[in-house]
Amino acid sequence: MELKVIPIVQVAIAAILMTLLQYFLPALSYSGAISPSTNSILVMLLLFIAILIGFFAIDSFRKHQTTVNPSKPETSSKVVDNGIYQYSRNPMYLAMLLLLISYACYLENPLTLAIVGLFVWYIGKYQITPEERILTSLFGQAYSDYKNSVRRWL
């Protein structure tokens, strides 16, 4: 099974790497290019949107009484294709991505966005692709149709 590291741990690892990058390369800050108040608003807005998306995603799964456990997609009981899931196949991962982008903005170091890119690559290859393979085998054409009609991220 390719599902190796649960997504929340992936986010924590990315955040730690971003923090280390900022600690060891603080001179690469863009703090002079954007006003502190504009940056604060951006950070808070991204954080708020991430929390909102995450809440709606988890709430949809709970309403449909299916698992939110990303390490056990084989226990899914149905394809959730309404609510926020009609816009994104992976709103929980989208919320995590926005959280990391918010943190990158908070750190004001453009190199931290490289870690965000690594997160997108890793979660796509080692989490989303295996999940989609499992869901296709579980739900067949219903999941294939859903996958073909809704984008992965947004």
Descriptive notes:
The protein is mainly α. The chain has one domain. Helix content is 65%, strand content 0%. The protein has five helices and no strands. Helix 1 packs antiparallel against helix 4, helix 3 packs antiparallel against helix 4 and helix 4 packs antiparallel against helix 5. It is elongated and about 50 Å long.
Gist?
The chain is mainly alpha-helical and 154 residues long. Helix content is 65%, strand content 0%.
List keywords for this structure.
0% strand, elongated, mainly alpha, 154 residues
Mean pLDDT: 93
How many domains? The number is 1
Task: State the low-pLDDT regions, or none.
Answer: none
Instruction: Give the C-alpha Rg.
Output: 17 Å
Shape: elongated
Q: How much of the residues is beta strand, in percent? A: under 5%
SSE string, helix = H, strand = E?
HHHHH
Helix tally equals 5
| Class per helix and strand makeup | mainly alpha
Number of strands: 0
How does the major sheet shape up?
Answer: none
Please bin the fraction of helical residues: 55-70%
Distance between the termini: 26 Å
Outline the fold blueprint.
Elements: H1 7-24, H2 36-63, H3 91-107, H4 112-139, H5 141-149
